[in-house]
Amino acid sequence: AADPAVISPQDPTLLIGSSLTATCTVSADFHLRAEDLYWTLNGRRLPAASYAALGPTTLSVALARLNGSKQQSGDNLVCHSRDGGILAGSCLYVGLPPEKPVNISCWSKNMKDLTCKWAPGTEGETFLHTNYTLKYKLRWYGRDNTCQEYHTAGPYSCHIPKDLALFTPYEIWVEASNRLGVAVSDVVMLDILDVVTTDPPADVHVSRVGDLEDQLSVRWSSPPALKDFLFQAKYQIQYRVEDSSEWKV
C-alpha cells in the first residue's frame, strides 16, 4: 500500500534557537485535505496559528526558536488526520555542536599498556549524543591509531592494551563528534616511561624481629603488573609513631 503522506524534512538536525518549516503532503488516495490535518511535537498539539495550507493536500507548520531536544532519540514531529491517525512523522535533533575535550591524562601499569581519560566540553553533549574517539601516534613518523577499548576507567576513558613503543614520545588527542559537528582536543605529548603508575605492593606484613622490641621486619609482594617489568622496581618504606605527623623513610 502507498504511504498516506510524505513529511519534509525527513531527518533535520538544528542548532538551538533555529527555526524550521515542515510540510505534510497527503496522497490523493486518502481523500484528505489540508484542513483535515494537524501537527504534534512530542505528543503535544501545535497551535493552528503556526499552520499554513500550501495546497489542497499540503499543510506546513512553522517552528520558531527551537529548544534543545528533550530526549537523545530526538523530538517527534508528527502529521495527523482529523481523527488523530498518524499520517507521517519525522525526528528533529536540536542541540549544540560538541566542544573540544579537555584535561587529557594518561598512565601505564606496566609500560606495555596505556589508559587515558578526559573531560567533555561544558555543553557539547547536553542535548545530542556525542561520540568520543581517542587517537594516538608516534610523534615524528607514526601513523594515526585509534583506541578501541572505551569506558575502562570511567565514562570518558580508553585503554590501549599493547603494541606501544618505548623511548619515543607519543601524540595523543580526542575527537568529539555529534550530528552538528566535530571538535578536537589539544594534542598531549608524553613518553610511556614518564607515566608509569603501578599498583601498590600487595600482601604487606609486619612482624617483630625475635624478642627485640625496637626492630621490625616488613615483607611485601610485587604488584602483578610488574612481573615482566623491563626495569627493576624500587620500593620505599615510610613509617611513623602512632598519632605522630612526622614520617620517617
Automatic annotation (TrEMBL):
CDD domains hit by this protein: FN3 (cd00063)
GO-annotated molecular function: cytokine binding; cytokine receptor activity
Gene3D superfamilies registered for this protein in UniProt: Immunoglobulins
Residue ranges the record marks as coiled coil: none
Keywords from the UniProt entry: Disulfide bond, Glycoprotein, Immunoglobulin domain, Phosphoprotein, Receptor, Repeat, Signal
PROSITE patterns cross-referenced by the UniProt entry: FN3, IG_LIKE
Ranges of residues in domain Ig-like: 4-79
Domain named Fibronectin type-III: residues: 100-201
This protein's GO CC annotations: CRLF-CLCF1 complex; external side of plasma membrane; receptor complex
PANTHER family: CYTOKINE RECEPTOR, CYTOKINE RECEPTOR-LIKE FACTOR 1
Family affiliation: Belongs to the type I cytokine receptor family. Type 3 subfamily.
Name of the protein in question: CRLF1 factor
